[in-house]
């Protein structure tokens, strides 16, 4: 893409900005479709010889999980009769499920952490809740339960009183770190499974994760600001050394989004018997996180505050607003009392995002700084995903579209509570054994493993 020549065409490009009427579903869907088309330009699965379910380098496997979650919502809200789109989503999400039907494909073992598997889990849970057609051999619910079961089995009480490590595999850098987003994904998926299935065991897990985060390691921390105001903080993570005593205090929008909406699901689930102390607890937490979600420039336009102002967001960070947007919309639906606060933030951010989607050769490439006038010359999968999901949020936060289904109300995905616990390829508890039939892949993997063990620094080799 030739940015510089386009910059000189600034005026022409700005004229082509996406039009968006936030009160008109057709207009919203048209804008979303344009952004989604821009997103598919990064899709490997449409390229000759490209891998189904993957996006182009430098985007990793986890980005694909993030992307499919937003595209699935777009399909559900805007184009449920589009068979081409259905096939793209179905094939991509199904293809990457891994040999053990648990979203731990062997050939991602050099990159995949608990948060990566978890972000795929958010997308597959979305398929369950949107009643997306099940594959024949394995259901989306079963796949989500496998993600949940394998993640939960990695709960690690041997250090810091519990929690998930960042990494699944010992050889990956970050195995000695326990981070908020990995634990947030387990918390969030557990909360959604509890509501969807009505099975209280999942809610107990959600409680376990929250309590560990807040009481054991204080990654969730209620601080007092200089003005005396209480503010909920959700920090990035902590190294296991020093009994998780040294905390990395960076705050990311997606972590807030994942925890906030998880709390809203817990609120919704525990309200089923009428209001109670338990549901009140979750509503308070939902509100506290929402109030502390200071990821809006001028309090109106969604901005990744820990990196955007310094202009140093990396490819991961440039995508975080997609999951934050999804979390905001789900929160507004699961805890309707938050709607009046959330709706204006989604509206102003969606409008700002749409007017930033005026760049590139296609004229609908989205920028990073939505507060800037028009396209800011930044581009990437993260920018497209973030814009798509905040525009999705205009629909997802309302009852114009069906709220996420449950097993007794609209959903049809088959349940298998023990999924993921009995596969031949056991990737629970950080053990990886390769099935015989997968010899070629296993050979490569073994070679890489050997390099990792001998060299100790596989990253230099790669
Ligand atoms: C991972 O493995 C699958 C199936 O074994 C293969 O088709 C795919 O190309 C591989 N993906 C990557 C990113 O290497
Ligand atoms: C259906 O989806 C495909 C893939 O996203 C898109 O190219 C096509 O324009 C869509 N069709 C309609 C009628 O919107
Ligand atoms: C609702 O109440 C029943 C009966 O007391 C109890 O078994 C169930 O766990 C409760 N459900 C929730 C979501 O609290
Ligand atoms: C900040 O937001 C207010 C509305 O809340 C708006 O009137 C004002 O123009 C905005 N300022 C900037 C610099 O965007
Ligand atoms: C985005 O653009 C606005 C308007 O030009 C500017 O005030 C702001 O500092 C920029 N924000 C970032 C994060 O670069
Ligand atoms: C729970 O969520 C549903 C949407 O699925 C909503 O209609 C309902 O009002 C929520 N329950 C409570 C107690 O807020
Ligand atoms: C969900 O999908 C099943 C199977 O395709 C279908 O029978 C059911 O009507 C769908 N539910 C809704 C609410 O559309
Ligand atoms: C509830 O979930 C737990 C944990 O996965 C499982 O062991 C149990 O069998 C489930 N109960 C029902 C009734 O499905």
From TrEMBL:
SUPFAM superfamilies: Six-hairpin glycosidases
Regions that span the bilayer: 440-461
InterPro entries the record matches: 6-hairpin_glycosidase_sf, Glyco_hydro_76, Mannan-1_6-alpha_mannosidase
Pfam families documented for this protein: Glyco_hydro_76
Catalytic EC class: hydrolase
Signal peptide segment: 1-17
Keyword annotations of the record: Glycoprotein, Glycosidase, Hydrolase, Membrane, Signal, Transmembrane, Transmembrane helix
Catalytic activity entry: Random hydrolysis of (1->6)-alpha-D-mannosidic linkages in unbranched (1->6)-mannans
Enzyme Commission number, as recorded: 3.2.1.101
The family this protein is said to belong to: Belongs to the glycosyl hydrolase 76 family.
Record-given protein name: Mannan endo-1,6-alpha-mannosidase
Lineage, top ranks: Eukaryota, Fungi, Dikarya, Ascomycota, Saccharomycotina
